[in-house]
C-alpha cells in the first residue's frame, strides 16, 4: 500500500517512520502551514494548570525559556503529551484524544475553586474549552499561540500520482485538513481518483468532513490516536494482500 500523509511539514515523519518500518511507502502532502503567534509567557505564572488540545500548542510551550517542568498540564491525548514528556515535563496527563475527552478529564481531576486554567490553542478551534467548562465553575483563559493556514493547491507530484492511481490511501488527523483536501481535490477535478482510494480518519467528525471527496471507503480509527491510525492502515494492508 502507498499512502498520502497530510500532516503539516515537520510532523509527517512521526507517522511516516512507523509506516516505512512496516514496509508501507508514503508521500507527504502538508495541507496546513503552522505559524507561531507571539504571546506573553508571563501568563504561565498564574494558572493552576494548562490545557492543550494539539501537539502544535505543546511545541509552542516548549519554546518558552525557563518554563517550569513541574507545571501541571492536561493534554488532549498521547500525541500532544509526548513532546512535553520528552522535554522533561513531569506533571502531564493525557485524556482520550478529543476535546470532549479532555473536558471530562478536567472535570474529574481538577477543582475549579483552586484557580484559573490556561488554554493554549491555535487560532481556529473546533470546541471552545472555556465555554464548555464554564457551566461547572471553571474559569479558563484562552491564549492563541499559533495559527494554521491552508495551502492553495495540491503539489504537482500529488496531482500526478493521484491521476495515475498511484496512491492507495490518504490519512487525515483533523476535520479542517479533511475539508481542505476535499476542496482542493474538487477544484483539481480528481474526485474520480478518490473513488479508487481509501481514506483513514482519526475520528467520526473527520470522516464526516471527507464525504465531498467521494472516497471508495473511509476507515475510522478505533481510537483518536496516531497508533490507532497506523493499526488501521496495517490492517487494511493485510486484508488487501
UniProtKB/TrEMBL annotation:
Instruction: Tell whether Ribosomal protein is among the UniProt keywords.
Output: no
Q: Does the keyword Lyase apply?
A: yes
**Any one Gene Ontology molecular-function term assigned to this protein's record:** uroporphyrinogen-III synthase activity
Q: Where is the Tetrapyrrole biosynthesis uroporphyrinogen III synthase domain?
A: 17-231
User: One Pfam family from the UniProt entry?
Assistant: HEM4
Single biological process term from Gene Ontology: uroporphyrinogen III biosynthetic process
Entry-linked SUPFAM superfamilies: HemD-like
Q: Which InterPro entries match?
A: 4pyrrol_syn_uPrphyn_synt_sf (IPR036108), 4pyrrol_synth_uPrphyn_synth (IPR003754), UROS/Hem4 (IPR039793)
Q: Which UniProt keywords apply?
A: Lyase, Porphyrin biosynthesis
Which reaction is catalysed here?
hydroxymethylbilane = uroporphyrinogen III + H2O
What is this enzyme's EC? Answer: 4.2.1.75
Q: Which domain of life is it from?
A: Bacteria
Q: In which pathway does it act?
A: Porphyrin-containing compound metabolism; protoporphyrin-IX biosynthesis; coproporphyrinogen-III from 5-aminolevulinate: step 3/4
* Family from the record: Belongs to the uroporphyrinogen-III synthase family.
Describe the task this protein carries out. Answer: Catalyzes cyclization of the linear tetrapyrrole, hydroxymethylbilane, to the macrocyclic uroporphyrinogen III.
Full protein name: Uroporphyrinogen-III synthase
| Native source organism of the sequence | Microvirga lotononidis
